[in-house]
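Internal QA ticket QA-208
Title: Verify multi-chain structure generation after dependency bump
Assignee: T.L.

Test input:
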Amino acid sequence: MQNVAEEFDIIGKRVPRIESVPKVTGAIRYIADMVLPGMLHGKFLRSPCAHARVVSIDTSKAEKLPGVKLILTPDDIIGKTRPVGIFPPQNLYALHQEVRYVGDEVAAVAAVDEETAEEALALLKVEYEELPAVFDPEEAMRPGAPQLHEEAKNIRDIKRVRVGNIEEGFRQANHIFKARFQTSKQAHVCLETHGCLSSYEPTTGKLTHWVPSQMIFFNRLDLARALNMPLNKVRVIAPDGIGGAFGSKCTTASHDICAALMSRRLGRPVKFILSREEEFLATISRHPFIRDAEIGLTKDGTIVAWRERTIQDIGAYADIGQWTGVVTLASTPGTYKIPNVWADNYLVYTDKSNSGAYRGFGNPQATFARESLLDIAAGQMGMDPLELRLKNIIKPADLPYTTSNGLIVRSCGMEECLKKAAEAIGWGSKRKANTGVGLSCTINWGGDKGGDKNLFDACFGSALVEIAVDGSVTVRTGNSDIGQGLYTTLAQIAAEELGIPLDRVTVVGADSDTTPPDMGCYASRSALVTGSAMKRAASEAKETLLKVASKMLEVDPEDLMAKRGKIQVKDLSKSLPIEEVARAAYFTNMGGDAGPIIGRGVWTSQTVPQNADGYGNFVPAYAFAAHAAEVEVDPATGTVRITRYVTAHDTGRVINVHAVEGQIHGATGQGIGYGMLEEGLTYDSQDGHLRTPSIMEYKLPTAADLPDMQTFIVEAIDPDIPLGNKGVGEPGIICPAAAIANAIYDAVGVRIKDLPITPVKIMRALQEKHDAVKAK
Amino acid sequence: MQNVAEEFDIIGKRVPRIESVPKVTGAIRYIADMVLPGMLHGKFLRSPCAHARVVSIDTSKAEKLPGVKLILTPDDIIGKTRPVGIFPPQNLYALHQEVRYVGDEVAAVAAVDEETAEEALALLKVEYEELPAVFDPEEAMRPGAPQLHEEAKNIRDIKRVRVGNIEEGFRQANHIFKARFQTSKQAHVCLETHGCLSSYEPTTGKLTHWVPSQMIFFNRLDLARALNMPLNKVRVIAPDGIGGAFGSKCTTASHDICAALMSRRLGRPVKFILSREEEFLATISRHPFIRDAEIGLTKDGTIVAWRERTIQDIGAYADIGQWTGVVTLASTPGTYKIPNVWADNYLVYTDKSNSGAYRGFGNPQATFARESLLDIAAGQMGMDPLELRLKNIIKPADLPYTTSNGLIVRSCGMEECLKKAAEAIGWGSKRKANTGVGLSCTINWGGDKGGDKNLFDACFGSALVEIAVDGSVTVRTGNSDIGQGLYTTLAQIAAEELGIPLDRVTVVGADSDTTPPDMGCYASRSALVTGSAMKRAASEAKETLLKVASKMLEVDPEDLMAKRGKIQVKDLSKSLPIEEVARAAYFTNMGGDAGPIIGRGVWTSQTVPQNADGYGNFVPAYAFAAHAAEVEVDPATGTVRITRYVTAHDTGRVINVHAVEGQIHGATGQGIGYGMLEEGLTYDSQDGHLRTPSIMEYKLPTAADLPDMQTFIVEAIDPDIPLGNKGVGEPGIICPAAAIANAIYDAVGVRIKDLPITPVKIMRALQEKHDAVKAK
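Actual output:
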C-alpha cells in the first residue's frame, strides 16, 4: 500500500473505529433492544398466493383475541394513506388488495406481544381469488402473459443507450463476439433483519420513528407523504446500532408505514421486527439480469462497438429498480473507451419479491457480463486479456476524459490498478495443471446517482461542527453509520481540518430533528458527499477560531493555521492552544465575534442526469478497481479453490485505511459469494413459493470460504472533490465473479456464464467440453 | 393595551402556547416520569447539625442492605472530583467534610428503589464534631463570630458603588432621609422539585444527564469539570417538561454531581428526585437583605445623592450570590437619574442554605427599599409621590442616556408607565377611609449580566433554523422552556422572519449534543438574546430561499420578500409558494446553491462589565415598569385587601401578548406573596433547624389571595435589539412590595419596612402610632 500524502496528520492513517468497543461489548442498542412504555408488537399476514385478489378478510375472531389492539386491512390503507415511492406503480401501499407474490402484505395486527400477534394472524380468514402468475421475466414479456399491474405493462420500462453509431461501429469491427450472461437474485442477508419502532404523540401531532435506515431523510419524506403530515412533524431516527444494510435499508417499507399508522391510530408505540424468513420472503434483493452482450473489436484489440440487451427482473413492484436500469448501462462505456454503444434494458415485472438497491447497484451484473465477454474475445483473438484491457481503458494522459456516454472522468488510476493486480498475481507466469488466473476491472460511481429529474438533480450532504468552550468538538451528520465506519471517517475529516486529535471529536448522527439533512448512505457516497460537507463545516468553524486568534495574537487570520491542537502563526513564531481560543470566542467580548462556534457545511454534487439516450454525468467522481484471482479447479468434482486473490482499488484519497480495506475486503467477500455460492432467492416455478426461506437453504460464504486477499490502494486524487476521495463502498463486490470465471476458464477451459459458478455447472461444462472433443 | 405595529403578521399577536395541550393533558414528560433500564435511585444523608466536622461515617451496615449499590462519602468526592462553580469558596463539592447548615449533604446512597435508599440512610452512622454556628448575618460580621470557611472570612466580599461625589451630593441636598429595610429568604416553591437522571456508558465514555435546567450548557461545563471529562463527552438534556424554575434551576447541584459520579462508577443510570422538604431545606432561595438607605434631595425634589449599605445573607456557600451583589447596586441609579451614588454591599456567610438566583435577582429587595424611602421623602417634603418620581426618571428626550453608574439606556417608557398606572388607579382622587394607593417603579436588566470578567464578558445565544423540502420548519435552541412559553415565542420569531404560519414551525430544544450552545434562561434574557439569534438564523435561512427564488423568478434577491407563505416580488407582480422554492433548493442543481436550507444565528450582548466602582453597562437593554396598588386596611385586624392593582410595563416589542401578560401576572403574584405573605425560610435561632419545611408552614399566595390586575404594555422599542424587545420575565416581581407598602401608608399612615407586610406588623405599627399620638 502506498503512503498517503505527508501533509495530513489524521487523514490516511489506520484508525480504529470509534464505535468498535460499544459494538463488540454489546453496548450499542439496536431496534430490537428498544422498549417504550405501552409498546405494541406488529405482525403481517402475508399472501400464500403468488397472484390473487383479496375478496374478503374476516377479522372478527382475531379482534376478539385478548391483547389484540388493532387489525389493519387494505381498506385502512388504500385511499386512506397516500402512496409512497418515486416510481409508480410500485410498492405504493403498505397492504395490498391484489397480492403479487407469495409473502405480499395483506393485513397487519398490533398486539401486546409477538405471540398474541402471531395467534391473531392465524385467526384471520382471508378469501383469495387466485389469478394467473408469472415468474420468469422472459415469459412475462411474451404477448398474452399474465399481467401484474393494471396501470403498467409487465415491461415496466425500457432504458436505452444510443451513443455513437452502433451499425458503423460493428462495420469497423474485425471481430465480433456475443454471449448471454445470467445472474441470480442475491439477498442482502444483513445480520440485523428489518424492523422499526414508531411512536405517535397525539397532543403534539408528532411521530417519532426509529428505523435502522440508510436514508432517514428519505424515510421522513415517505412517512410524511403516506400519513399526510408535514415533514417537521415526522422525526426519523436511526439507532446507533445498524446491523448491516448494503442497500436493503434505503426505501420505506410496509412495516414502516403500518407501524406509524397503527401508532397514530392507537396513540401507543408499535414495533415491527421481521423474522429471517420474512426477510428472505418479502424484502428486496439484487436484480437478476439476463444480458445478451455483443462486442466489436478491430484487429489490434480496440473496442469499437458494444451492444447489449438486458432483461432485468424487478419483481412485483418497481422499488428503485428503475434506477439500477439507468445506471447499470453506464458501466461498460465507463470502464472502457468505446465510441459506439447501444443498449436496451428491459425492466420486467414478475410475481416475486421486489428487486432493489444492493451494493454495486447493477454493476456486478454488468461487469460479470462485460469482463467475461472481454476474456472470450481475448481468447478467440489470441490476445492477452491484460493487454486487451490496458489498450482500452482511460489513461492518465487522457484526463479529463469524457466517455461516449457523457461521464466526465477527472482522475483515473485504472492502469495502475490493473498493473498492480496483474503483477501481484504473477500474470503470465507458468502454473501447474488445473490452475488459472483471471482479471476483471470496473468503473464505479462514487457519490450520487442523478437519475431522476424530479428528485435527484442535485444530491446533497450537510454537516454541522460545533467547538465547545474546552476545544472539544461535536459534529452532526444526518447520514447513518451502517457498519462501515462512516462516523470515524467523518470525525477524522473534522479533526484534520481543525488540527486536533481524533479523540477530541464526537459524532452525533441520523436524527431528522437534530442533525442536518443528508441524502444518506448509498452509492458509495457518504465519505465523499457527507465527508465534503463535513470538511466545509469544520473549515467554517475554523474560520471563527482563526478570526478570534488573530485578535489575540495580533496577526492576520490568513497567516494562521490550525495544526496539532494549536492555532499557530504559519511561520511558527506564535501559537495558542485551541481551547484557549475557543474559550475566548465564547466568553470574551470581541466586538461581535464572540459566541458559539458552529460551522455549517453543505456539499452538492454537480451532476448531469442521463438523457433518454443514456448520456449524462450522473455522479461527481468515478472510482476504479481491478481484481485478479488465481484458482485451482478439481476436475473430478468441479470444486474451485481460490488460491490467491488480489484487489487493487483507485479510491482517490484514503481517509481511514482500516475502513477502506474493510470495505474492499467485505465487498470482495460478498462478491465471491455472489460469484461462487449464492443461488440467490429461488422459487418454485409452479406456485412461486420461495425455496430458500432460511440461511439453511440460502448458501452464504463464511470466513472459511474466503481467500486471503492482497490489497493495493491507488490514490488517484480527484481534483473536483475537496479531499479527492471517490467512494469505496461498492467496487469490491463488482469484480470477483468475472475474475473467478476468467480464472476458471484459464484453469480448465470452461466458461460459465451464469452465476453462481458452482461445481455442478463446472462439471457439466467439463462434460460438454469432453463430449465435444470426443465428437470431433 | 396598545396595538403592535402593523408590519408584523405573527409577532405581537395573542398566541396560545405550543406546549399547552401536551402539558394540560399530561403528555409531556418530566424527570420524575423517566425510567431507564437498570435505573437506580439516589438519596442524600443530610446534616442534622448547623455547623460540624464529620469525624467518621460508618457505612458497613448500610452496605450490607440488599439493593444498596453504592454509598458515596466525602472521601469519594473531595480530591477525587474537581470543584465546580464560579465563586470559590462555595458549594464546591457535592458532599461535605465540614457541614455548614442543617440539611447539608454528607453522604449519598444509590439503591434499587427509593425505599431501600431511605432505609440505607438510616443505617449510616455519622460521628459529628459540632462547631459553633451563626445564623444572623449581622452577628456573623462581628469580630469573634464563628467563621464558616477557612478560605474566606464571613464577610465574603464587599461590592461597592462609587460614582459622582457622595459628600458633595449630600451637601447639595436640602432634605435627607434615611431608613433601614429588611427582606425575607423567599423560596422558589416550583411545582416540580429538583431532580436529575444520569446515565454513563462505559464503552463510549459518554455521560447523558437529564435535568430540568435553565442552563444546560452551564451544567455541562460544571459536570465536565467535576468529573474531569471533555465537554463533548457530557450530554445534558432538559426534558420537555420543566415544572417552574424562577432562577432555582440554574446552578449545578450536589444531586447532579452525585448522580453522574454514581452512574460512572456503576455503569447504571441513577436518578435523584428531591422531596419537598429537601427542596426547602437544601436548595437555594432569595437573598435576604438588610439595607440602610439614605437619600438626599434638593427643595424641588431632585435626587442628588443616594447612599446605601446592605448586608446580604448569602447562606453557607456563595453560589451565584456574588452576582446579585453586583447587579443589585445598579438598580437605584438606573431607575432614577442620580449623579452621586455610594453603596457598600456586604456578602455575608451564615449557617443556612445557600441564597442564589431568584427572579428579580436582588432588584425586588433593592426596589422595596428605594421606593419605600422615596415615598417617605415625598411625604415628609409634602410632595406628590408621582410627581417626585416623574421628576427624576429618564424621559424620552434624554435618550440615549448614560446613568451615573454607566448603564446606557437607549429606550425608556417609564414616564408612560408611571402615568398609565397612576391614571388607571385613579391617582389623586378621593377615597374612603382606610383606603389608600401606592406606586412603585423600577428599571430591569434584560439580557445578560456581564458581571464576571472570566466567564461573562460576552453572553450569547444561538439558534439553527432548518427548512424542510415541504417548507415546514424546525428550529433548534439550546435554551430551555421553563414554563414561560419561550418556545412559542421563538417559533413566532422564526415564522415571522420566514413569512409562514406559526403552525409550520416546530421547536427542538435544550440538548447539548444536538442544539446550539446558549447561555440559557435567566435574567429576562431568552426572548431577547436567544430570540435575536433566532431572528438571525431565520434570516439566514430566508436568504437561501430568496437566492433560489430569484433564479426561478428571474428577479434580484433584493426585490424579493418572504410573506404569507410565499416568496413574493416586493411589487407583488410574481410569487412562488415557499414549499416550491424549498423543493427547488433541495433538489434542483442550481450551480451550487442547492442543498439543505440551514440558517445559523448567533447573538452576543455587547456589554461592559461593572468595574470596581460599580460602573458599567452590563446588559444590552433595559426594561421599565410601574405598579400601582389600591388597598383597604382593616384597622381592627391589620388585614390588607388589595382592591385594585395596575401594572404598566415597558417591555419593548411584544412578541406574544399571552406570554408577556403571563409573565407580568405570574411575577406580580409572586411579588405580592413576597410583599404580604411569605415569611420565607425561617430558622430556629438556637440550632438553625428549618421552621418551614413544608407548604403547610411556608405560606404561598393562592389565586384567592391575588387581585384582578389591569395590565398596560408600553412598547418602547429598543434600537439596539433586532426586534426591539427588552425582557419581561422579572420586572413583575420587583414592584409589588413597595407599591403595597406605600398604599398601606396612604391608607392608615403606618410604614412597614420589613417584608412581608403581615397583619401583625400592621397592628403593631398602628398601636405604636396610636401610642405616639397619645403620648403627645
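Spot checks passed. The radius of gyration of chain A is 27 Å.
Status: verified.
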